[in-house]
Fold:
Amino acid sequence: MQPVLDYLKQHQARFVAELGDYLRFPSVSAQPQHKKDLLACAQWLVKHCRQIGLEARLCETAGHPIVIAKTKRAAARKGLRALPKPHFMVYGHYDVQPPEPLELWTTPPFEPRIAGRNLFARGSTDNKGQNFAHLKAVEAYLKTGTPLPCDLTFVLEGEEEVGSKNLSTFLKQHRTELACDAIVVSDTGMPAADCPALTYALRGIIAFEITLHGPARDLHSGIFGGAVENPAMALAHLLAKVRDDKGRIQIPGFYDGVAALSKYEREQIKRYPLSDAGLKKLLGSPQLFGETGFTATEQRSSRPTFEINGLTSGYQGEGSKTIVPSWARAKITCRLVPNQKPAHVRKIVCSWLKKNCPPTVRMEISAGHGAEAYMVSPTSAAAQAALRALERAFGTKPVLMREGGSIPIVNEFKQVLGADTLLLGLGLPDDNAHSPNEKFNLDCFENGQRLSAFLWPELAEPV
Ligand code: BES
Ligand code: ZN
Structure:
């Protein structure tokens, strides 16, 4: 193990430079104009994986490609019969969120910049920096000739930020090749650079768009206003009814089956080292807001939500334009918690919206992606192995957390491969994931590599 750790230490400067190359690809999966950039990024990854000694290939899909990279199996290495070793998958994504609004970035999102111990670029924490840490740990094993106690397969996809639809198909087609004992994912967070974490639950999600259609075209608001429905007003009225002023969703059945937090979980959550005051400062919001009876950490990790992600109608340009808009649209996502079934929640939310839609407009709802919440035991042998590796890598005891974000594919790993996912996040609360000036902390990068190095022996030979 020492040669692996020494190798990691010696090569940090090069690793950071290589991560910079990875971050220069504008691999924005949501925007069709970046299709070529996703392909180029995937090709770069394949080449890089081969350079560090993995067997790598690019797999075309109906959308963006998937990169598969594996350690060379014993049989292939020596022409001998392979001894069965445990097999673990490392999953990550090379696609990133749209960087807009660009004017809020201090320096351009795809021109990586280092300031102190932070590396700024879109995708740095979510998720290129985090998955690259695992690649660098494997490189250290392979280049120092240190035997790995397990077989590893990296699955790096280009559609996580848009719902992982094609990876889901790929998984079913390659279930034998990808069968494994556990999956390791670093695509979540940790409370602070000196406070590592094992995440044992993620929220699920449903996404959809509502459009309210009013008059056949934008109208002069002086000539017609007052005698015709304004779709933007109708949408505002409708959406305002969804929630009461205490943050409770008013759609009947929305909370059905939502489990109360146990006393143990509430105590664990209290150990999370970010106070409400600290959170308010971090978010730059005039005040915190949330469902009464829950702390901010509980609200954002363990309670379901209804959020407007985007709201569009009428004239958005400079100055004024006196119209009654012809339509209004909202992009909505609900975060779900364990026991809420995405299809059921979608059904009750959409029928409530339809029932409450005034007859003065026509409602159109288009369904987007959906995924169940994820929850896994933090006391399993694999989780205990991961906790030991976290402690060795960071030199301090890890915390257990539930997190509010979603990684839809982890449910399918369980359903299709029958394997649990260990969520070992390296992102910090102030990393600005999905926001302008996204960054990745270089201490988290380096300790993440050490975590990956310690993890394989701990997982392969649990005590
Ligand atoms: N890395 C996040 C997920 C995440 C972030 C989990 C923080 C826990 C804590 C991932 O890249 C992401 O953003 N996922 C999307 C999924 C969606 C598009 C289906 C999300 O959560 O919005
Ligand atoms: Zn993300």
User: Anything to note?
Assistant: Residues 126-127, 160-161, 163, 187-189, 202, 205, 369, 403, 405-408 surround BES (ligand 1) (CB under 6 Å). Residues 221 and 324 are 5 Å apart (CA to CA). The mean pLDDT is 96. DSSP finds 15 helices and 18 strands in the chain.
